[in-house]
């Protein structure tokens, strides 16, 4: 009797997860397997082979590694990731600390700070393209007005400044997420700890170092790694701003894949780069889980 | 006392600076949306000298292939369907993972988290081929399926966090009273997790509303486009009319910003709950 009951329970459990498993299998697991397969097959869409999509071994991967533009993209990606993650985190952390203090209008400030996060990427990029405009952009107008610049700069047209310009948009769009998550973490800290520390004569800096930071560490670790993973995946911002240009200065790996697939129509090579990115993501996920487990033990 | 006053001023100054940085592009977008073309192509001023609604009128009266209202309708359909499908699949799945001890349960919850790291760039190529094989290219239903797939894992993760915080003894009590599992789920547990549902709904809706990359790859004909691709196509033309373009941008953005403001607390709670529990 008891056994029957358990198996029925288990059965209804499976029914609950069935749609989830199906959609994950059909539209996530299958495409990944398909990408893995395509990465070792011939998929040059502009030159269809009479043999169809035949097996080519590691040729696509070799093509990738011999492509100087791939290495350019890898370099740009790492730079883009390091700078934007660091700045989003620092700016977000500073914002969270600032907005955690009570002052008149802090509620308003918390509401305003969300805006960049809420604005759709396409809209954000369009507005920044307009602000970056060489002749009529507000940024050039302000900087020359203040005497910082002597002449107008084509922010997204000059290969020396396009990458930093794209990074600025990414940082602007991304720091509110960090600020809001950390602010939620800050508000969860027991105020009595600060009071006790004040009684014991701790300085502000000591409180930050010995109470705030350790309490925020679990949330920070999660936020930090999410930032890394999301940045590796992201391409709407860089793509919309400059399509990877000028002279491939903003061509992060995601754009490289997109261009290889839908401009040069080599699906095999594109899949190979995608698989390499998945590998990089998995390494970061491994670190993520290790950090999470450590956080739980601590 | 003096030191604390100095600190307070410092905090307020920092807050003002950071807020200005955050909202300036937003304000600029609104300002330009009210400017006539002659003012856009001139030395920029913060406020329009001769504010006009022409941009909004022009954007709303676009017809034929490049029609704002058609894209708006498409975006609403795609986002609503994505939300509906994601919610059904995610709440059922999250309840299953939260309440049942089946084989592969922990593996499944790990897989759900792992999906967060799959680069879209990896999926987009095979997805294009698969959708082509299924005759779902240039088809809104294909796009909805793709979006649902991307939003479901995160929605499940958030909902599981909420379900975990509701004691299973409530379920057991209801089952003793004769309710079956599905009744417990739909009539007791779901109503108890309304804040979580709200957060998940916004997340799914906004994901669909804002998405650009997959829409631009999977949709071809203008009449199937969603707002993000539609509006982006205005830029880069030789005679880009920025006033009109920004009017469209304002109309896309304002609803999203309002939703965020209304429901941000739930969204943050949902995300942190998932983040802390893993």
Automatic annotation (TrEMBL), chain A:
It is found in: Cell membrane. One of its GO terms (biological process) is transmembrane transport. The keyword Transit peptide does not apply. Residues 74-288 form the ABC transmembrane type-1 domain. It is a multi-pass membrane protein. The chain crosses the membrane at residues 12-33, 78-99, 111-131, 137-157, 169-189, 219-242, 272-291. Pfam families: BPD_transp_1. Keywords: Cell membrane, Membrane, Transmembrane, Transmembrane helix, Transport. SUPFAM superfamilies: MetI-like. GO terms for cellular component: plasma membrane. Its main location: membrane. Coiled coil: none annotated. PANTHER family: BLR7065 PROTEIN (PTHR43005), SPERMIDINE_PUTRESCINE TRANSPORT SYSTEM PERMEASE PROTEIN (PTHR43005:SF1). Belongs to the binding-protein-dependent transport system permease family. This is Carbohydrate ABC transporter membrane protein 1 (CUT1 family). It comes from Intestinimonas butyriciproducens.
UniProtKB/TrEMBL annotation, chain B:
It is found in: Cell membrane. GO terms for cellular component: plasma membrane. GO terms for biological process: transmembrane transport. The keyword Membrane applies. The keyword Oxidoreductase does not apply. The chain crosses the membrane at residues 7-30, 76-95, 107-129, 141-163, 184-206, 242-263. Keywords: Cell membrane, Membrane, Sugar transport, Transmembrane, Transmembrane helix, Transport. It is a multi-pass membrane protein. It holds the Pfam family BPD_transp_1. Residues 72-263 form the ABC transmembrane type-1 domain. Belongs to the binding-protein-dependent transport system permease family. MalFG subfamily. PANTHER family: MALTOSE TRANSPORT SYSTEM PERMEASE-RELATED, MALTOSE_MALTODEXTRIN TRANSPORT SYSTEM PERMEASE PROTEIN MALG. This is Maltose/maltodextrin ABC transporter, permease protein MalG. It comes from Intestinimonas butyriciproducens.
């Amino acid at each position: 009797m008891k056994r029957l009951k358990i198996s029925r329970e288990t059965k209804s459990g499976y029914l609950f997860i069935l749609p989830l498993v199906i959609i994950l299998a059909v539209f996530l697991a299958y495409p990944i397997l398909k990408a893995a397969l395509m990465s070792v097959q011939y998929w040059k869409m502009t030159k269809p082979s009479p043999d169809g999509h035949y097996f080519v071994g590691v040729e696509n991967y070799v093509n990738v590694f011999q492509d100087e533009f791939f290495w350019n993209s890898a370099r740009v990606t790492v730079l883009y990731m390091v700078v934007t993650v660091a700045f989003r985190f620092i700016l977000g952390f500073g914002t969270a600390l600032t907005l955690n203090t009570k002052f008149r209008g802090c509620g308003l400030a918390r509401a305003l700070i969300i805006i960049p996060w809420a604005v759709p990427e396409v809209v954000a990029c369009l507005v920044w393209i307009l602000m970056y405009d060489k002749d009529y952009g507000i940024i050039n107008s302000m900087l020359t007005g203040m005497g910082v610049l002597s002449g107008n700069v084509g922010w997204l047209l000059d290969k020396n400044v396009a990458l930093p310009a794209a990074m600025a948009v990414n940082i602007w769009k991304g720091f509110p997420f960090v600020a809001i998550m950390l602010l939620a973490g800050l508000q969860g800290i027991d105020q009595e700890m600060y009071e006790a520390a004040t009684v014991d004569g701790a300085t502000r800096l000591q409180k930050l170092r010995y109470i705030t930071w350790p309490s925020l560490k679990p949330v920070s670790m999660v936020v930090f790694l999410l930032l890394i993973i999301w940045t590796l995946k992201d391409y709407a911002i860089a793509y919309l701003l400059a399509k990877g240009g000028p002279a491939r200065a903003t061509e992060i790996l995601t754009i490289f894949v997109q261009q290889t697939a839908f401009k040069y129509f080599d699906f095999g090579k594109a899949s190979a780069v995608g698989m390499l990115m998945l590998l990089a993501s998995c390494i970061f996920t491994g670190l993520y889980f290790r950090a999470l487990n450590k956080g739980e033990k601590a | 006392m003096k030191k604390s006053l100095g600190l307070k001023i410092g905090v307020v100054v920092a807050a003002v600076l950071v807020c200005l940085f955050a909202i300036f592009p937003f304000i600029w977008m609104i300002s330009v949306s009210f400017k006539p073309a002659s003012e856009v192509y001139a030395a920029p001023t913060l406020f329009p000298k001769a504010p006009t609604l022409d941009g909004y009128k022009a954007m709303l009266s676009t017809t034929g292939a490049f029609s704002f209202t058609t894209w708006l309708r498409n975006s609403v359909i795609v986002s609503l369907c994505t939300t509906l499908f994601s919610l059904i699949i995610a709440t059922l799945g999250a309840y299953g993972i939260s309440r049942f001890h089946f084989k592969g349960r922990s593996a499944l919850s790990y897989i759900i988290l792992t999906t967060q790291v799959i680069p879209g760039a990896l999926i987009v190529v095979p997805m294009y081929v698969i959708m082509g094989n299924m005759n779902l290219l240039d088809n809104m239903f294909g796009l909805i399926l793709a979006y649902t797939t991307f939003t479901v894992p995160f929605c499940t993760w958030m909902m599981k966090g909420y379900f975990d915080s509701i004691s299973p003894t409530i379920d057991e009590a209801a089952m003793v009273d004769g309710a079956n599992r599905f009744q417990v789920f739909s009539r007791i547990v779901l109503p108890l997790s309304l804040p979580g549902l709200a957060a998940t709904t916004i997340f799914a809706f906004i994901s669909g509303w804002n998405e650009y990359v997959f829409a631009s790859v999977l949709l071809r004909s203008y009449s199937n486009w969603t707002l993000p691709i539609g509006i982006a196509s205005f830029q880069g033309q030789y005679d880009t009319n920025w006033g009109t373009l920004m009017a469209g941008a304002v109309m896309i953005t304002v609803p999203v910003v309002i939703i965020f403001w209304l429901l941000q607390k739930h969204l943050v709670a949902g995300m942190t709950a998932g983040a802390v529990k893993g």
